[in-house]
Amino acid sequence: MAFETILVEIEEGIATITLNRRDVLNALNSQVFTELAEAAENLAVDDSVRAVIITGGDKVFAAGADIKQMALLGAVDVAIGLRPSKIAFERLENMPKPVIAAINGYALGGGCELTLAADVRVAADNAQFGLPEIKLGILPGGGGTQRLPRLIGAGKAKELIFTGDLINAEEALRVGLVNKVVPADQVLAEAKKMAKKFVSRGSVALSLAKACINEGQRMDLEMGLEYEHKCFSLLFATEDQKEGMKAFVEKRKPNFQGK
Ligand code: CAA
């Protein structure tokens, strides 16, 4: 996949998307969003890919949407021109494979929101998170007002969004914004380790578990439990379920085929 503002590499079933606008701290302009949306669409249906990592490289994740580009936009331009950001985030969030954000340095505004579209977040001990949009006279428009309170609770999300203040990795871990904090030079390796573990599990079960959790957040408890029960039942039609339980009985590791 050849893009200009992102790099996509696939190795051992794990795709790594790297944001590639280093000179502007990976500020996310409309081209980045369009390319991310296309990459996510391709990776979702690529059978050779079983997990996706998104990173900004070893210095910075992303300092937000491109303010210089946004400064020139009117309401209609934003409604239409920034639509790809919504599409990109939703495609990453909903793809039937695990998506891990590997975060070094700043993850601000749209950059922080991009990490929220991932399933799990691994952060460097030097990472900084925040939604500073309020200081620009806008609100977090890349899902921040929706995904952040669902992840860390409304109270803490409101504090971050109303103040625009940044928090460090330790605080992000404490409030549940990130899953793990590791030394800065080990972020990508840790994300790959996590991806490999996900990939070693039954991929049909994992994708349905992801769907249950994501879809469940759009439903009341009763409907969510019903949805879960249907997915659970469906898994008993897979070879992976037979293999997983047979392997347990035979005291060996399962050899899942993803079907
Ligand atoms: N958009 C465009 N360019 C940006 C940028 C952004 N979000 N963030 C940084 N840059 C550019 C700077 O303009 C600068 O470029 P020049 O060298 O051409 O001047 C370059 O990246 C390096 O940045 P700084 O010199 O500012 O670096 P610093 O280390 O002094 O500060 C920072 C780092 C604290 C992250 C600071 O750059 C900053 O505050 N950036 C903006 C953060 C922000 O407000 N993000 C929210 C954006 S709005 C949004 O994301 C909307 C949404 O909900 C989708």
From TrEMBL:
Q: Does the keyword DNA-binding apply?
A: no
Source species of the chain: Desulfosporosinus acididurans
UniProt keywords (A-Z) are:
Lyase
**Which enzyme type, at the first EC level?**
lyase
What the entry lists under PROSITE patterns is as follows:
ENOYL_COA_HYDRATASE
What family, per the record? Answer: Belongs to the enoyl-CoA hydratase/isomerase family.
The protein in question is named: short-chain-enoyl-CoA hydratase
What InterPro entries would the database entry show? Answer: ClpP/crotonase-like_dom_sf (IPR029045), Enoyl-CoA_hyd/isom_CS (IPR018376), Enoyl-CoA_hydra/iso (IPR001753), Enoyl-CoA_hydra_C (IPR014748)
Q: In which pathway does it act?
A: Lipid metabolism; butanoate metabolism
Coiled-coil boundaries: none
Gene Ontology BP terms: fatty acid beta-oxidation
Catalytic activity reads: a short-chain (3S)-3-hydroxyacyl-CoA = a short-chain (2E)-enoyl-CoA + H2O
Gene Ontology molecular function? 3-hydroxyacyl-CoA dehydratase activity
Assembly description: Homotetramer.
In the Enzyme Commission scheme, what number(s) does this protein have? 4.2.1.150
